[in-house]
C-alpha cells in the first residue's frame, strides 16, 4: 500500500475529477491520501473530501495565503481545531510554514507576518498534541528555530512531515532529530534534480515519506516544459494516481523494489502521522501491501516529455 502524504485533491484543477482521480489512485494501490488545508476557505472542503474518500486531512494556513489572512483567520483555525480534534480523520496541523522564495513574501513586513502566523499555528499544534505538515522553501533554519522555541515553551511539537524537502544534510538531520519525516515526490523524478536525488539516496530509510503535492509538482512524465507552455499548453496536472509510478522511479535510485519502498514509506508515514494507522483499509492492515511493482499508465498526456528539465 502507498500513502500520498500530501495531496491537494480539493484544488480547482481537479474540478469534477476529484473522486475519479482518487479511485484511479486506489486501484493502483494508494490506500490513503492526506489533504492539507491552505486557508480558512477550504477547511470544510478538505474535511468533507477526506470523509467522502475514506482519507485524512489537516487544518492550517499555508504561508502563500498569509498575505490575505488576518487574526480572524487564526481564530477560525483555532475554533475549527477545537471542534474537530476528536475527528479521527484530522491527522495534523497543516499546511503551515515559511516561504522565503516568493518575492512578495520576502519583504521584512511579510517575513514577520509569516513568522507570527507560523508560531501561532505551532502553538495550536502543541495545544492539541498534533503533528504538523511543514511547507519549507528557503526557510528550513527558521522553521527549526520556531520548533525549538516551541519546545522551550512547553511540550514539543509532535513531529510531522517537512513537505517537498530540498534542504541541506544538516537541516535534514535537525528535522529528523525533532521527530520529522521528509517528503519527496515528482521533483525527484527528474534526472536534472541532482542535488535532490542525492539527498533522497543519502538519507536514512526511516526519514522518507512520499507525496505528490497534486495538482502541483508534476513528475517528468506529466511535466510540460517552458517552450510548450509558452505555446499555450497548460502545465501537466499531477495526481495521487501518479504516486505508485513516482515511488517505482525513486525506489530504483535507492536499489529497492517498489514494494519494499511502499512498505517502508507507509511505515514512516504512520510514524509521522499516527492517526493514519486507524484509517488504513482493512485489507492493508492485514496484508500491509498491495502489489505495486508495475508502473501503470498515467493520466498525463505528455508521457513522451523529456526527463531533463527540472520543475
Ligand atoms: Zn501543499
TrEMBL record:
<feature type="binding site">
    <location>
        <position position="95"/>
    </location>
    <ligand>
        <name>a divalent metal cation 1</name>
    </ligand>
</feature>
<feature type="binding site">
    <location>
        <position position="135"/>
    </location>
    <ligand>
        <name>a divalent metal cation 2</name>
    </ligand>
</feature>
<protein>
    <submittedName>
        <fullName>DNAase</fullName>
    </submittedName>
</protein>
<feature type="binding site">
    <location>
        <position position="163"/>
    </location>
    <ligand>
        <name>a divalent metal cation 2</name>
    </ligand>
</feature>
<dbReference type="GO" id="GO:0016788">
    <property type="term" value="F:hydrolase activity, acting on ester bonds"/>
</dbReference>
<dbReference type="Pfam" id="PF01026">
    <property type="entry name" value="TatD_DNase"/>
</dbReference>
<dbReference type="InterPro" id="IPR032466">
    <property type="entry name" value="Metal_Hydrolase"/>
</dbReference>
<feature type="binding site">
    <location>
        <position position="8"/>
    </location>
    <ligand>
        <name>a divalent metal cation 1</name>
    </ligand>
</feature>
<feature type="binding site">
    <location>
        <position position="213"/>
    </location>
    <ligand>
        <name>a divalent metal cation 1</name>
    </ligand>
</feature>
<dbReference type="InterPro" id="IPR001130">
    <property type="entry name" value="TatD-like"/>
</dbReference>
<dbReference type="GO" id="GO:0046872">
    <property type="term" value="F:metal ion binding"/>
</dbReference>
<feature type="binding site">
    <location>
        <position position="6"/>
    </location>
    <ligand>
        <name>a divalent metal cation 1</name>
    </ligand>
</feature>
<keyword id="KW-0479">Metal-binding</keyword>
Amino acid at each position: 500500500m502507498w500513502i500520498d502524504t500530501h495531496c491537494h485533491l480539493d484544488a480547482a484543477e481537479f474540478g469534477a475529477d476529484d473522486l475519479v482521480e482518487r479511485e484511479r489512485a486506489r486501484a493502483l494501490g494508494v490506500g490513503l491520501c492526506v489533504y492539507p488545508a491552505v486557508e480558512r476557505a477550504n477547511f470544510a472542503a478538505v474535511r468533507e473530501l477526506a470523509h467522502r474518500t475514506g482519507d485524512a486531512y489537516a487544518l492550517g494556513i499555508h504561508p502563500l495565503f498569509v498575505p490575505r489572512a488576518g487574526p480572524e483567520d487564526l481564530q477560525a483555525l483555532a475554533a475549527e481545531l477545537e471542534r474537530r480534534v476528536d475527528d479521527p480523520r484530522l491527522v495534523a496541523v497543516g499546511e503551515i510554514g515559511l516561504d522565503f522564495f516568493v518575492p512578495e513574501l520576502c519583504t521584512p513586513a511579510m517575513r514577520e507576518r509569516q513568522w507570527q502566523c507560523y508560531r501561532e499555528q505551532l502553538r495550536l499544534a502543541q495545544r492539541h498534541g498534533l503533528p504538523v505538515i511543514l511547507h519549507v522553501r528557503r526557510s528550513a533554519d527558521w522553521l527549526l528555530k520556531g520548533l525549538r522555541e516551541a519546545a522551550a515553551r512547553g511540550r514539543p511539537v509532535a513531529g510531522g512531515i517537512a513537505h517537498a524537502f530540498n534542504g541541506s544534510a544538516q537541516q535534514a538531520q535537525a528535522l529528523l532529530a525533532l521527530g520529522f519525516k521528509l517528503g519527496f515526490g515528482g521533483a525527484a523524478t527528474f534526472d536534472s534534480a541532482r542535488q535532490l536525488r542525492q539527498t533522497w539516496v543519502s538519507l536514512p530509510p526511516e526519514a522518507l515519506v512520499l507525496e505528490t503535492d497534486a495538482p502541483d509538482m508534476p513528475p517528468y512524465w506529466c511535466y510540460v516544459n517552458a517552450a510548450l507552455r509558452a505555446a499555450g499548453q497548460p502545465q501537466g496536472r499531477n495526481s495521487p494516481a501518479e504516486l505508485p509510478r513516482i515511488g517505482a522511479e525513486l525506489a530504483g535510485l535507492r536499489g529497492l523494489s517498489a514494494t519494499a519502498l511502499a512498505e517502508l514509506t507507509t511505515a514512516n508515514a504512520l510514524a509521522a502521522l499516527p492517526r493514519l494507522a486507524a484509517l488504513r483499509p482493512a485489507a492493508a492492515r492485514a496484508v500491509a501491501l498491495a502489489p505495486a511493482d508495475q508502473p501503470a499508465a498515467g493520466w498525463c498526456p505528455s508521457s513522451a516529455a523529456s526527463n531533463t528539465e527540472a520543475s
